[in-house]
Amino acid sequence: MTSKAIPDASNFVKGVDTSFEVILGIIFFFLIAITATMIYFVFRYRKEKNPVATQIHGSVSLEIIWTVIPTILVMVMFYYGWMGYKPMKEVPDDAFVVKSVGRMWNWQFEYENGKRTDTLYVPLNRAVKLDLKALDVIHSLYIPSFRLKQDVVPGKKQMMWFIPGREGEYDLFCTEYCGLRHSSMQTSVIVMPQDKFDSWYIDTTKTAPLISDKPGALGLIIVKKNGCLACHSLDGSKLVGPSWKGLFGKTETVITNGQSREINVDTAYVINSVYNPNDDVVKGFNKGLMLSYKNELTEDDIGEIIEFMKTLSD
Asked: What pLDDT score does 210 carry?
C-alpha cells in the first residue's frame, strides 16, 4: 500500500525549493572543499616540510579551470533560478482577481463582488491573482509557505499570482520595514475547497458584521477595517498621529501653510483631515505621513467615525 503524496502549498514551491537546494548544494560543496584544501595546505606546506619558499610563476591551465568551472556553476544556478522565477510572471487569463491594499499597518483584500476582508480567502486549485497597491510607503507581501514575495511600491502597479495546492491557513506578512508597527502587519491566507469558497463568496451577510446599539459601534468597525488605530491611539498615548482620546471638540494648535493657529476639532475639521490630511497638521506631528482617504471613506463613514470619537471622552 503506497501513501499518497502531500501536495505543495502552491504551484511555485517546487521551483523555488529546487533552485534553493541547487544553490545551497553548490555552496556547501565549495565550503567543504575549500576548507579541506586549506587544512591540507597548512600541513603539507608547513615550514618543516618546505623550509625554502617555492616561487610559482603561474599556470594557464589552472587559470582556465578556475574561470570556466565557476562560470558553468553560475550559469547552472541562473538556470534554476530563472526556471523558478519565470512562471511567476505568467498569469493565467482566467485567474481569480483580488485587489490587495497595504497601508501602515494592515492589509485589506477587496473581491470583485465588493467584499472586503483583512484576511485573504482563496479557492483551492484555482489560479489567484493579487493586484497589489500601497497607499503610503513601501510594503512587501510575503507568503512563506507559497514561496512568494513581492514589494509593493506606492504609485506603481504590481501583482503576484499563485495556485493554492493544499487546504489550510497560511501566514502572510509584510517583509519590508515600513515604520513603527511593521511587525504587527500580518494576517493569514485561508485556502478553502471551491464549494466552500463559493458559499463564503456569495454570502453577503458576512460582509456586514452584526452591529450593537452602542453609540459609535459602526464607527469602530470602520476605524478597524481601515487601519486608523495603527496611527491614532484611543488611550492618550502618542503614536504617528494624535490620540483620539478627548480629541473631538478640543482646541488644537495646527500648522497651516507653515503658520501656527488654533482650531476647534469639529465635524468640518475631521472631514477635511481625512480627505486632505496635510492641510492642518497638529503641532508636534509630522506632515506627509497620512494619505488622503477620499477614495476610501464617504462622508457618512466619517460621520460614524465621529460618533465613535465622541465616546472617547477624557
From this structure: 47
Cβ(301)–Cβ(270) below 8 Å:
no
What value, to the nearest 5°, has the Cα angle with vertex 9 and ends 6 and 14?
85
Residue 36 has pLDDT above 50, yes or no: yes
- The answer to whether residue 18 is domain-embedded is yes
The single-letter DSSP state of residue 257 is T
Residue 124 in this model has a pLDDT that exceeds 90 = yes
Alpha-carbon distance 258 to 58, whole Å?
Answer: 69
Distances 195 to 71, 125, 191, 202, 203 between C-alpha atoms, Å? 51, 12, 12, 11, 12
Cβ(98)–Cβ(167) below 8 Å: no
Residue 39: its H or E element: helix 13-44
Enclosing domain of residue 143: 96-207
Q: Is 135 exposed, middle or buried (0-12, 13-18, 19+ CB in 10 A)?
A: buried
Residue 222's identity, in one-letter code, is: I
Rg from Cα positions in the chain: 28
The strand pair at 148-152 and 158-162 is best described as: unpaired
> Grid coordinates standing for 186?
500580518
CATH number at residue 71: 1.10.287.90
Give the Cα separation of 226 and 212 in Å (integer): 19
On whether residue 237 sits in a domain, the answer given is: yes
Contact of 105 with 230, CB cutoff 8 Å = yes
Total domains present in the chain: 3
How many CB atoms are located within 10 Å of the residue 12 CB?
22
pTM of the entire predicted model? 0.70
At position 141, the amino acid (one-letter code) is L
